[in-house]
Every structure is written in C-alpha cells, then in structure tokens.
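User
New here, help please:
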Amino acid sequence: MADSIQVQLRKGALDLCVLAVLSRGESYGYEIASTLTAAVGMGEGTIYPLMRRMQNDGLVATRLVESSSGPPRKYYRLTPLGQTVFEAHCRDWRSFADAVETLLKGST
C-alpha cells in the first residue's frame, strides 16, 4: 500500500517538478530526467511523453544543439505561459500541502 501512494504522489507532482527544474533555466531531456530521478525517483521513460505534451500545450519551447559526443540535444525552456502555469501550480501545491499538513497534525 505504501508503494501505491508514493507512485500516485509522484505522478500527481510530476508536472510541477518538471516546471520547477525548468524555472531554474534551460535544460535537456536527460538532464531533466536525471534531476528528477535523484530528487523524487521518477524514471527517464516518464519524462519524454510529458515533455512532448508540455511542448504541445505551449508550456515549453525547444531548440536543438549539436553535441560533440553524440546526436543533437533537445533543450527545453519555459515559455511565458509555462512560467505563469508554474507559478499557479506552486500556489496550488502550497495550499494543498498546507491543508494536508493541517489534517495530519490532528491524526498523530
């Protein structure tokens, strides 16, 4: 049961986590995936479909950069809409986390 809630929490927060990484600056896919794997245990395979959706939704823009060590890297950056959505998600997350914390305080 504990694994189940961890998976659901990760899925629910993944968009916010990706937006948070990109709010710090432009990054390429593998770098985003590595950061999220280290921070919250999200797998690399989860990131690329999400990045495609965010690009289609206008939240991120991309550019290709040649690499001396392999194929070109696709770099992602927040668009103005992506920054606005990130800020709204942060407010929503904090409000939700505060409400859950309030409920948990009375339970233990």
